[in-house]
Amino acid sequence: MHVIDSHTGGMPTRVILDGGPDLGSGSVAERAERLAMQHEQFYKSILLEPRGQPGMVGALLVEPVNPACAAGVIYFDADAVLGMCGHGTIGLGVTLAHLGRIGVGVHRIETPAGEVVIDLKDPNTVEVTNIESRRVRQAVTIDVDGYGSVTGDVAYGGNWFFIVDPSPMSVEPANIRSLTDFTIAIREACISHGVGGENGEPVDHVILQGKSPNKGVHSRNFVLCPDNDYDRSPCGTGSSARLACLAASGQLRAGEEIVQESVIGSSYRLFYEPGQVGGVVPSLTGQAYVMAESTLIFAEGDPFRTGIIR
Ligand code: PYC
């Protein structure tokens, strides 16, 4: 299996070029569902240690339905198949450019959440125009075991987010362990209280919004992913959900650009345009760097060929 690893603001993406399972035909969303339901061991083995690394997101290339798209892609982490992934799409754009499959300019990419547009500005810089994102619930208060009442918004940006703004815990690298434990407890509370999307979709990511000490930066976030690891980047789908919240509460105008920082200090430039069905169409720009081109080997006798299950 040939893979190319990149990182976007410190968050790793592994693009899988070949060796994936037969997912049949249908939309990318239908094929993603088959990957989730029938090939769990396959996708986890690519990301779990010892072949993968904590936090890593996989990007399985698939044939797009729309021939106008440069690629179809299914993203996943070590726990779940994702609807979309912003940092992964920046990493994918840079990887496709590295392979000579796309050049500078605008390209469409098919994801389970819908078609997104990438604008490759240079070999390392990509602007992603995401699917329409929306806030679905405002100021929901939940009781979080061991922490008390926490209030946040539920929003969709290609994945489902519970966004706490401002965070009651300081968003800084020294607190990453505590922030992780806190956000896991918040996600569990959301699930046990039935707080999620309009159709009962469970919250799969949690965001804590804090202040940045850096000039010109709007805010700093901590984002918990389904695999219980944190996003080293500012999270593209999470930033999209956040833009939807800022727009819905009149805190950011269409077209106004802000800089969103991650807990480790990497950043995206963000803005939105009004959507077609009441939400926002977010754009995020970030940088990715290719780190490795590898062949993964899953030897028959290897006791950890399917990864170290946590
Ligand atoms: O950038 O959208 C994102 C993302 C989702 C999970 C990890 N990164």
TrEMBL record:
Domain of life of the native organism: Bacteria
SUPFAM superfamilies cross-referenced by the UniProt entry: Diaminopimelate epimerase-like
Organism lineage string: Bacteria, Pseudomonadati, Pseudomonadota, Alphaproteobacteria, Rhodobacterales
Sections of the chain in a coiled coil: none
Protein name (database record): Proline racemase/4-hydroxyproline epimerase
Cross-referenced Pfam families: Pro_racemase
Family that this chain belongs to: Belongs to the proline racemase family.
Species: Ruegeria conchae
Gene3D superfamilies: Diaminopimelate Epimerase, Chain A, domain 1 (3.10.310.10)
